[in-house]
Amino acid sequence: MAAAAAPATSGAPHGRTPGRWPARLAWALAAGVPLVFLGTFFAWPVLTLLGRGLLPDGALDPHGFAEILTRSRTWRVVGLTLAQSAVGTGVALLLGIPGAYVLYRCRFRGRGLLRAVVTVPFVLPTVVVGVAFRALLAEGGPLGFLRLDGTFAAIVLALVFFNYAVVVRTVGGMWARLDPRAVQAARALGASPVRAFRTVTLPALGPAIASAASVVFLFCATAFGVVMVLGGLDYGTVETEIWVQTTQFLDLRAAAVLSVLQVGVVAAALAVAAAGRRRQERALRLRLDAAAEQPLRLVTRGLRTLRPGPDLVPATLTAVVVLGLLVTPLAGLVVRSFRTSEGWTLENYVNLGSTGGPNALTVTVWEATANSLRAAVDATVLAVVVGCLVALVVSRRPRGRAARRAAGLLDGVFMLPLGVSAVTVGFGFLITLDSPPLDLRTSPVLVPIAQAVVAIPLVVRSVLPVLRAVDPRLRQAAAALGAAPARVLATVDGPFLLRGLGLAVGFAFAVSLGEFGATSFLARPDRPTLPVVIFRLIGRPGAENYGMALAAAVVLAALTATVMGLAERMRTKEATGW
Q1: Ranges for the ABC transmembrane type-1 domain (predicted)?
Q2: d(CA 211, CA 221)
């Protein structure tokens, strides 16, 4: 039947297929609506800010551009950004690859729970990560004797904490699909386990490792909250320098030049990530096709029981990383939140119903929590709608080269908000959305829109692998049996889309809940979000304010972990993303 259906579908698209133009119009709208959204709420604010800095009089001022680039301060922050990102990426890869093997290649009791624990740090707000490490490493903290508070090493540890899950999920998702027979053949020919890994497994994992490295580098370069809390201006990055130049010095030209530098780094990282994903998907398709052609008796399971001997080193290293690097900072944050000068007490949590010490807050922490939840719900709805439309369009495999390039370009364009400074986006909102017909400065939708812009790439990355797993022949068969394009979309793509939707909603909600860079600009004093309140409390003197910041960070972390726990329960094996 499949063979008979193929000619019917291949001969149809030559102007005689009923409903051909309505279908094309629908796909054009599916691509056009997200592009309009991104153009209005990302490209326009960012380009306007860059234009005001680089074209102050309507013409490019190369001397001003050169003046910014010759400042020692500029290259100091650029060097620190590259150093932190490179070291953080290297350490994350060294620790994450063994974790990917243990969590995705081995079978043991509690593996699902351990995967969820590893995922939680990635979706935690950067402010919470900074507060957790500061509580652990500061003087008087459990590891205060190491004197790492405010150092380069503390920032790198926090960056690895934040990005460990990216390496584990990306590399592990690829590793779980590798055919173990290649390694078995190498071992049968006399190769040692190390040589078999180096010559067989590692090259096969190359695309996934390259993709993970580029994404981790990107996240390390844009970890605004982590650097602000742990490093301050002593270890400022391009991201924090844009914030300083914009808010403290009002130097839009310097901020614009730094944004251009950041966009260049982001574009390079996204290009590497996209190339790695394409190679990864191509390799997976080849392996799936090869597996489908093999007799059933030759298909073996990739998972194996965790072995005490051969798997001792990666299992031990993974346990040390999970307990020492991931669990300890969060556990220390929780413990410190119950500790005051008077001993163990709930005072910090009771104070969340107040506005803190003198001139600390304008609303209570619980009111800020409600603001964050409302904004996150609105942002999630926007991000899921726009992101799913993008994923539906990009997941298609058009025959024409131009159409394939257009789909790839659309995918890359919607990844840009991951790397462009959220501070740039937030300040761009203030200077563009301030006059009719888009005067949104006092509107409560301004913060959710900014958060949605940041969350859309994660929605796309969560849903896209699921939709790309759909066999195109299923759509062809449905169309050949007379199903309209809308019905094909609903009956073929719809069930797959629902499989990845839970994870997409979880990522969008968690990221929106903890977004800090753009929200720090846009949140009104009477409607601050929880991350903004935590940062304000840290910046105010007094043990009461600091204790409230710890308790508020625990509340935000608990909300984020709960959301991601629910999302993981709805997650299926197809929804790997990165």
Answers
A1: 78-271, 369-567
A2: 16
Beta bridge partners of 349: none
The token duo for 458 is 């994660």
Task: Indicate the helix (H) or strand (E) that contains 434.
Answer: strand 434-435
Q: How confident is the model at residue 325 (pLDDT cuts 50, 70, 90)?
A: very high
CA distances from 294 to 187, 271, 300, 529 (A): 22, 35, 11, 55
**Token digits for 381?**
């709805």
- Rounded to 5, what percent of the chain is helix, strand, coil? 75, 0, 25
Task: Tell me the whole-structure pTM to 2 decimals.
Answer: 0.78
SS3 490: helix
Mean pLDDT of 395-413: 73
Domains along the chain? 20-63+346-578 (1.10.3720.10), 90-288 (1.10.3720.10)
State both tokens at 472.
């195109």
Which residue did the predictor score with more confidence, 56 or 442?
A: 442
Residue 87 has pLDDT above 90, yes or no: yes
Q: Please tell me whether residue 145 adopts helix, strand or coil conformation.
A: helix
Beta-strand relationship, 106-107 and 304-305: parallel
pLDDT band at residue 578 using 50, 70 and 90 as cut-offs = very low
DSSP 117-135: HHHHHHHS-HHHHHHHHHH
